[in-house]
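Researcher: Following up on the earlier apo prediction. This time include the ligand. It's glyceraldehyde-3-phosphate, with the SMILES given after the sequence.
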Amino acid sequence: MMIASNFKTNYTRAKADSFIKSIQACMTRTKSEQEVRIFAPFTALNSFDEVKNLKVGAQNFYPVQNGSFTGEIGFEQLEEFGIETVLIGHSERRHILKESHAFIAQKYDFAKARDAEIIYCVGEPAEVRMQGIDAVMSYLWEQFEGIDIHYEKLIIAYEPVWAIGTGLSARLEDIEEVLERLREKLSKPLLYGGSVKVENIESILHVKECDGVLVGTASWNEEAFCEMIRIADSVKK
Ligand SMILES: O=C[C@H](O)COP(=O)(O)O
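Model: Understood. Below is the ligand-bound prediction.
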């Protein structure tokens, strides 16, 4: 399974470095079999020692190799550190940073052309959820328009917007229903994100069709993130 941490706009370079080393040690100590990803801020990217199944990724990038785009980070700056996994479509970029779907699809195509692993995030806001499952699925499928769902290195993260950073995860039956509906058309790994924590990760990982989690807030504590990896190792699917 995949257990991913998104630092968002948290941690200095020094703190991120110590966090990553601590998770490397945790995975070595526990002989973890999980695929672990850590999405650190740009300023914390570095050439980290290789640890089996642990990759540091980028939360964002501008879809160019390099060029004149003041303040942006292109792929050349990621490749310098061997970064080969990226987040695309996170709801904070869609809703707070106002990324259009056309721009997200452009980023997707760019990362795909660079052969990067893509964690592609989709999720509905509360007002859509209140309209029921069919409205939720129509909203989610729109977020796949122009996205190559057959890309070999695609991983999908279903993150209901209303469950992100609220401490209130979606109900297990709701996660299961959405993942099962996504599975009808998608053959790629399906993650769930939205207030995942030590207390609920085990039950979420047991949800049918759930191949892992993308964790924000609760992963920012290294002991807690290590514990989540350990719990994932104990879940047999
Ligand atoms: O990328 C992670 C998600 O936005 C989930 O964040 P959260 O665990 O703080 O709800």
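Model: Residues 2-234 form a domain with the TIM Barrel fold (CATH 3.20.20.70).
Researcher: Noted. I'll compare it with the apo version next.
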